[in-house]
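Q: Joint fold for the lines below.
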Amino acid sequence: MSANFSQHTTTGAPQFELKARTFTLPLLRLFGTDMEAVARQLSEKVAQAGGFFHNAPVVIDLKEVSGAEVAFPLLVGLMRGHGMIPVGVRGGTPDQNSAAEAMELAVLADGRSQRPEIQGAGPPAGSVKAISAIEATKLVTKPVRSGQRVYARGGDLVVLAQVSSGAEIMADGHIHVYAALRGRALAGLKGNQEARIFCQDLQAELVSVAGHYRISENIDARLRGRPMQVYLEERTLHIEGI
Amino acid sequence: MARIIVVTSGKGGVGKTTTSAAIAMGLALRGHRTAVIDFDVGLRNLDLIMGCERRVVYDFVNVINGEANLNQALIKDRRCENLFVLPASQTREKDSLTKEGVGRVLEDLSQGFDYIICDSPAGIERGAMMAMYYADDAVVVTNPEVSSVRDSDRMLGILASKSRRAETSAAPIREYLLLSRYAPERVRRGEMLSVEDVQEILALELLGVIPESKAVLTASNAGMPVILDRESNAGRAYADVVGRYLGESLPHRFLELPKKGLFNRFFGE
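A: Joint structure:
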């Protein structure tokens, strides 16, 4: 970042940018909840490791203690006492996650599935909080006419009839159109990059997944007339036959 | 209780008033007491098409405002005793039409009539919304070309969401497609959308196809609903439309170019 203080900062010169980067962090896989035993083992390990764990951000894995009550304040205190910086948990049950969040630990992605646990259209076993969990898929059985807008909040959208040109259909999850799609379709509206659009005949004016879009002019007209899907991979929109 | 039919389109100039006049006359000729109302406040022309423009004393807005009653405003057609016209106001503002006022007038009319045809203005503004709000049936008039089809599609969306039936979750409005100004020769040349093309986009029950016809202009100049011109293709097509609306099963005519075979060439048509 250039520290060019003579420049106007109020008229839009950016002060920072947000990017996604991968870091490898040490994982503390908890096997038991006896904090005294944990304390003893921790002391040994840290002694053996020299300065390795000093100021190291560490993630706590809770898969092996699923359902058990973990005394997070004690555990965090223990870890900090040895110079570790506990930054988050993964693989925990909703209750454990809440307790972790109360200690200001982040709830990180479950290592098994590649998807972030909060999003996703299909229910990954045991993650997502029950209240905001997969809301009922929105089902539309009549044609979506020009000018109409349909939004499937928190879930998928299934349309059993055509979507006319000038209509707009949106979903936080996937969009399935069992007929011709001629309007605009926006899947993954809140940022779910795994969302897909499926239709029987792609004649859409615009398709979008998690904000990445393509307009009709840039969709090959030869792709019309057969079942198609639209999905995002490596931040590029792919449009392919099913 | 009267059946309320709205003749609408979205797009202007496609043949709503022509159709309203023709269907109203057709139903009346079959013995049904029919009223046709012009909802186009300020740009009225139903009275011209019906040939009663010189007999207008009171209009729709007068009745809504209580300045006249229905009997004073309704104009009886001279050709058919079952047919009555309620003209629009030419001098008032469109805001004069209120949902409650329109509702009251339709309620009153329902007492004495079998069918009430609401001739909608073009667009999706107040006049068009008032015309379609209380409808039981909708005849969506469409020309076989892309902008008319899209506008009709938009109007269908509005019928499905903003009508009283939609708002009260009653049985939805029965929607019919009426394709007008159809020219088979142009369809064959690929200049005009075919019935199938239009149906693919609108997916509606096809009430009828009215061929492009000079008789329409002639009839409107004469202040006569074109259905009375029984020689013309348009007149005959409208007669079929009324039949189909009443439940008769009639094949669609005038979709193909007449074939001139050898036999016809020798012995004439």
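Q: Anything notable?
A: The CA atoms of residues 21 and 234 of chain A lie 14 Å apart. The first strand of chain A starts at residue 27 and ends at 29.
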